[in-house]
Amino acid sequence: MATLAEQGSNPRNAGRRSAHVEEQTAPIILTREKARAKEQVHKANIREMEERQMRGLLLERHEVQAEARAVARQIREAMLAIPQRISAIIADHDEPFVRSRLEKEIRKALESLADEL
Question: Is 109:79 a contact under the CB 8 Å cutoff?
């Protein structure tokens, strides 16, 4: 293929020169259009997330994780407190009474937590 300088003086090559330039710029234009479209979609997604956050529908991950850890600690503490609270009560009783009392205490602890949360 002749260079543009070689083609420049020959009028027959004007069409070739134009086609060659179009071939080179077409991918660049498409790439720019795709980049703009992608950027617009990205900005729209950010605006949507900001709006949802303002409405209280979207929370920060670290806030949710901190709250989940706090709830887990409360549950753990409530469950671990049961044996100390009822050990003297169930010490001299048979298995059905112990099971019943444990179930009652566990249910009571979980209901209390549910009311707090």
Answer: yes
